[in-house]
Amino acid sequence: MLIGETFNVAFRSIRANKLRALLTMLGVIIGVGAVITVVAMGTGAQRNVENQINALGANLITIEPSRSRFGGVESSSTVPMTIDDAVALRRDAAEYIDAMAPEMERRQQVEYGNQNINANVKGTTPEYPEARNTRVEYGRMFTTGDDDSRQRYAVLGANVPDNLGQNPAAMIGQTVTIRQIPFEVIGVMASRGSIGWSNPDDEIYIPLTTARFRVMGNDRLGQISLTLPEGVNRNTALIQFERIMRREHRIRPGEGNNFNLRSPTDYLATAEETSKTFSALLLSIAAVSLVVGGIGIMNIMLVSVTERTKEIGIRKALGATRIVIMSQFLIEALMLCLVGGVIGIGFGVVASNLVSKNLGWSTEISPTAVAVAFGFSALVGLFFGLWPARRAASLDPIQSLRYE
């Protein structure tokens, strides 16, 4: 039997039982579609994290307070960082610092006219936009002189004017009240989008010294943001920062740090590991669906062999060889899986777009995932179609002709 005729016979057999063929392909369709959707979600999430890291700046280092550890035992309270820590870093590690922004923050009631919002107010230095790889879109940032003289100036995050029901450009020169203290708005930051669990666009920035003496009432820092100059070795800089912080916090040899040194690459590595674990779990479920679909195909092909026993006997009596009979049933199983794979690809693309549109999740269709899923569906057809094909080829022609 010519290969083209074999394909025609297989196709006619599938077309003769459309509903049964569709139900048989369902497992393959779901499996292939799930693989494409899961990989699209994972790839989109990774791209989103990478974009957030790039927005932060590749040379960014943050230092945050944490609990101290000694002998494997963690203390019950967090050891605070102060402005003195930032002063020591600036003084003793100047060659490793391009820009530095100490930050102290607290949620405060912010009033403008008859509008009242609860916002995160952050006291920082004029170097904050450079340290955090952002810029002021309207107006200006406060200066070192403004900070030293404790000026009541405020720079709003990109979303704050809208939260107050105002146009960003129109807010310049207006007065907002923070903790019953009036602040003149001198700038509005460019939009950055949410980063992790926080959204800088909802924050308000005021001079660090003003925050310390007029709003917060203490010198405790939430974190210190640092950017490294070009060409500086990251590991060397981290070692220097750690040495200075341990000295300032009077940490003895053998005791653990009561602060954390972090960089965007750390977050990226953690996010990638989490994404890989999540994707691997969902891909394993999709693989099980493909295997179940393969078992369904094998079951239907065995039923088909039984139904077509007399046909097989006639073909053998007319001279069809074992290879021809095996090819016929293998091609039929393969076509079931390939057609299911094509439908599954369409299902996966549509599902990815629906997830992106309705849930707001980033998705990115991977051509590699499409090719792998389609290829795996073909392998499923060949693997699970082999036994029914061999069974059909091994039938005795005389017994087959007598089959009723």
Describe the 3D structure.
This protein is α+β, with helices and mostly antiparallel strands. The chain folds into two domains: about 5-50 and about 270-400, no CATH class; about 80-250, no CATH class. About 55% of the residues lie in helices and about 20% in strands. The protein contains 13 helices and 14 strands. Helix 2 crosses helix 11 (about 320-360) and helix 11 packs antiparallel against helix 12. It is elongated, with a radius of gyration of 33 Å. The two termini are about 25 Å apart. The mean pLDDT is about 80.
Secondary-structure topology with pairs:
Elements: H1 3-16, H2 18-56, E1 60-65, E2 67-70, E3 73-78, E4 81-82, H3 83-92, E5 99-112, E6 115-124, H4 128-131, E7 136-139, H5 144-148, E8 153-156, H6 160-163, E9 175-178, E10 181-189, E11 203-207, H7 208-216, E12 220-221, E13 223-227, H8 234-248, E14 259-262, H9 264-307, H10 309-317, H11 322-359, H12 367-393, H13 397-402
Parallel strand pairs: 6-11, 8-10
Antiparallel strand pairs: 1-13, 1-14, 2-3, 4-12, 5-6, 5-9, 5-13, 7-10, 8-11, 9-10
Helix pairs in contact: 1-11, 2-9, 2-11, 2-12, 3-8, 9-11, 9-12, 11-12
